[in-house]
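Give me the 3D structure for CapA family protein.
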Amino acid sequence: MRGDTSSCAIRRFLVAVLLCFGVVGGATAGAKLDDPTVSLAFVGDIMLDGIPGDTVKGERDPFAHFARILDAADIRIGNLECVIASEGRAERKPFTFRADPRTVNVLKGHFTALSLANNHTGDFGRAAFSEMLNLLEVQKLSYFGGGRNLAEAHAPLLIERNGLKIAILGYNEIFPRSFEANHDTPGLAWSEDEQVITDIQNARKVHHADLVIPFMHWGLEHEPHASARQRRLARTMIDAGANAVIGGHPHVTQDIEQYKGSPIFYSLGNFVFDGFKDEDNITGWLIRLEMDRKGVHRWQLYVAHIDHQGIPHPASPKARSCWQRGQRVGAICG
Ligand SMILES: [Zn+2]
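Predicted structure for CapA family protein (334 residues):
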């Protein structure tokens, strides 16, 4: 029931915006843009095993319906909720996802970088994780939140566009913790508050980033509201210097908050994922941030409906809603 899904998503979004913006408030009214500017698109979980994997094997593109919206952003980022490898053996856990190496080429066609910090990139062991790093590097598709050792996993991905240097960090706090990188073993970046704060501060001090965005894998599955833990850490990250916080993992979208002028999108929900039927699970968000040197000056949201093959379709070619600097309450635009 596509119509029901859409109205449900819009209703939830409006409630989230009214609740959060109404209480916390926005930035300075009438503020001017601080040139230059850069646009970034973020999507949630991309799982390329199962039917979406078969789609790629059939030489069809799971991202085709969102190509125009993705391509319109200077920087395009998603969470890779699987390992990409031909080797490895499934870990003992309820769900394990492994995508065919040919998916890298399809991802490269749409994304600037992928987060590896989640509870599935380690599903087929460290050798498969390393194979994925090699495959991504060969195709020159950037990644963050994971690496060949602990230092690499915690290093920011630095992207320069339009004269701005953007640091992207990725962290996972969903078990198993055994997927974490070690001093000399590959894996992902685990979300430890103290380390996250240090990494954000270093992105500015050591790497001279103008803008810093952490992409989190956190929260309770199928829970539409962020937990106290998520809220506390998100605010701590902004206090440490993050300009926006993006999250995922719950398989549903969660509420949006504004803190000290910076937006927090607690969960973008699924993006490419099969096997879900409930409306909440087959509705995801693409968030488009427009940023200047001071941070986010405007954001827009596109609703994705995920079909029974796990493929996302835009609810509308236009953004459903937006916020811009100076507004206290979110407004519908488009
Ligand atoms: Zn997850």
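The first strand starts at residue 38 and ends at 46. Let me know if you want a second pass.
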